[in-house]
Design a protein that fits this description.
heterodimer; A: about 270 residues; alpha/beta; 6-stranded mixed β-sheet; disordered N terminus; B: MetI-like fold; 2 domains; two-stranded antiparallel ribbon; binds adenosine-5'-triphosphate; binds magnesium ion
Chain lengths: ~270, ~300
């Protein structure tokens, strides 16, 4: 990638091991059983796509990886989410450092209300990096990593919401990468984008999977077909089938998966 | 069918015409009030320069001396105190309500705020007279000054601050609730603590809204009359400390209009005071809109 020309050992994140496994996870909101006995492993250095009809619990599952259900009311969570062998749902789990391992990309890009530069520097600053030169390097490195450097290098200090939607989404990705996560969690991260921007993000994911474990929720089967290494198919809060993309798409073990892939329901 | 169609269009045209008319009317009303006050205040402006009126401190209508400075400063002091006190409390309360509390707490607090906001201001005045004034004169002031009646700038500021508190809290809660959860989640995912998220992102995102709310509260506070009038002592002098009495402009108008109008120019002086208030509120509202507009773009 073009980034290599400026790569300095101090800036380039060292690749991390990413271990995420979900053990017997159940989520209730009030009386509704939203996630049922989820048991999956997320493989490192690959793209895992979560697919399934609307309302089946894809977003909720993704949120449990990051403890983003904390503020939701009346939710009961049982079971374990192990991130590098630390259970996120242990009573006194320290959440912020686990969240830091998870880069999040939401459906609509949401740049922080500050400049392009500060968006990327933000994460580093809250974790204690103050050195201006270091921050400059990180900002440049990450902007290059998402192919945004050439487009914005002359206006690093304009508000981030001046960028186009597609550019904003790449900025959000770069912002997440700047705190050196091990995972990237993306919830329909391309569905609000135009086809070209969307393709851009897909290509980035394929590039990034060398260094990260990427989990993406997607509504478009074709996207999953294009880039998924592993697929998790969910239906009504249950994981029906999970496995290598090749196998799930070509040889689904369960009748329900087959029907879904054939477009019998969506 | 054709006839029915044109009938519908006619009704639509009529409705929009009527609404346009009513909108214009309310606009004209504002302009009309402004012009009316301006014309009524002409007599005194013909005799004295505006600068003399604004910068002198002697208020002796029977001698023809109309110095507005004490009233202007009194208004500024009371409003300033009220905003400073209410702003910090309202911000923290609103942050607690939107970011930390359970919805059961909100169900309890919001109706209480509505009641507070709906109380007639004379009730706040009575509360101030019964509790705040004695508390200042007996408990607080003795630490700082030798003698204080308690009817003071501070009492006015406190009462006014409490009065605008519900307004500020509900505006702030509204402003924080429109900050998308995605933004909070994005910030949390970078490893920020909830407090960092609020301080560095939510507050910043809401900055223009907060500013607009404060300006709105200021223009409300400027015009508040009865409650302030009951506790601030109403002496036309420049307050030397917050324990001194003061005399804000709305209180001046309310206390004197209709009496002593036989004194020459008195009537016109009060109209000028009302015109000041009008202009200040107008300027503040317009200013807030301009700022909002600038920040949003
Ligand atoms: N805060 C909440 N309160 C109550 N129910 C909720 C809440 N969040 C999600 N749910 C319910 O949980 C179920 C799963 O929702 P989720 O958003 O995870 O589905 P999804 O698979 O992401 O759907 P989509 O593809 O439409 O995004 C839905 O039935 C939804 O109604
Ligand atoms: Mg979803």
């Amino acid at each position: 990638m073009e980034a290599s020309s400026i790569t300095k050992d101090t800036v380039k994140p060292t690749a991390k091991e990413a271990h995420l496994s979900v053990r017997n996870l159940n989520v209730h909101i009030l009386k509704n059983h939203i996630l049922k006995n989820i048991d999956i492993e997320i493989p490192d250095k690959s793209i895992t796509c979560i697919i399934g009809p609307s309302g089946c619990g894809k977003s909720t599952l993704l949120k449990t990886f990051n403890r983003l259900l904390d503020k939701t009311e009346n939710v009961t969570i049982t079971g374990k989410v192990l991130v590098d062998n630390e259970n996120l749902y242990e009573k006194d789990a320290e959440v912020t450092h686990i969240r830091k391992k998870m880069g999040l990309l939401s459906q609509r890009p949401c740049p922080l209300p500050m400049s392009i530069y500060d968006n990327i520097a933000f994460g580093c600053k809250i974790h204690g990096t103050r050195n201006k030169k270091k921050l400059d390097e990180i900002v440049e490195y990450q902007l290059r990593a998402v192919g945004l450097w050439k487009e914005v290098k002359d206006r690093l200090h304009v508000p981030a919401n001046k960028l186009s939607i597609g550019q904003q989404q790449r900025l959000c990705l770069a912002r997440g990468l700047a705190v050196e996560p091990a995972f990237i969690l993306a919830d329909e991260a391309t569905s609000a984008l135009d086809p070209i921007s969307s393709k851009h993000i897909e290509e980035l994911f394929v590039e990034l999977k060398k260094d990260y474990a990427i989990v993406m929720v997607t509504h478009t089967l074709r996207q999953a077909l294009r880039i998924a290494d592993y697929v998790v198919f969910m239906y009504l809060g249950e994981v029906i089938e999970a496995g290598p993309a090749e196998q799930v798409f070509k040889n689904p073990r369960r009748e329900l998966t087959k029907k879904y892939l054939e477009g019998a329901f969506s | 069918m054709n006839k029915k169609f044109s009938n519908r269009i006619f009704k639509d045209k009529l409705a929009s015409g009527v609404m346009l008319g009513l909108t214009t009317l309310s606009l004209l009303l504002v302009v009309g009030i402004g012009i009316g006050l301006y014309l009524k205040s002409q007599p005194i402006l013909e005799q004295k320069t505006l600068w003399t009126l604004l910068s002198t401190t002697e208020w002796k209508p029977s001698n023809g001396e109309f110095g507005f400075l004490p009233f202007i400063l009194g208004t500024l002091w009371i409003t300033g105190l009220a905003i400073v006190m209410a702003l910090s409390i309202a911000l923290l309360t609103a942050i607690y309500l939107t970011e930390y509390s359970k919805s059961s707490v909100k169900r309890f607090v919001f109706p209480a705020l509505d009641i507070l906001a709906g109380l007639p201001s004379v009730v706040y005045g009575v509360w101030g007279t019964l509790f705040i004034v004695p508390w200042i004169s007996e408990t607080l002031a003795p630490h700082f000054v030798e003698y204080a009646t308690g009817y003071s700038t501070l009492a006015g500021g406190i009462v006014l601050g409490v009065m605008i508190l519900p307004l500020l809290i509900s505006l702030f809660v509204e402003i924080f609730s429109v900050v998308p959860d995605d933004l909070r989640n994005a910030t949390l995912s970078l490893g920020a603590t909830p407090w960092q998220t609020i301080k560095l992102v939510v507050l910043r995102k809401s900055f223009s809204g907060i500013l607009a709310a404060v300006v709105l509260a200021i223009s409300r506070a400027f015009g508040e009359t009865i409650a302030v009038l009951m506790v601030c002592g109403n002496l036309p002098v420049i307050p030397g400390s917050v324990f001194d009495s003061c005399y804000p402009i709305p209180a001046l108008i309310a206390n004197n209009y209709g009496e002593m109008l036989s004194v020459p120019l008195y009537d016109s002086a009060l109209m000028l005071a009302a015109f000041f208030l009008f202009i200040v509120v107008l300027v503040f509202n317009a200013g807030s809109r301009i700022i909002l507009h600038r920040i949003e773009r």
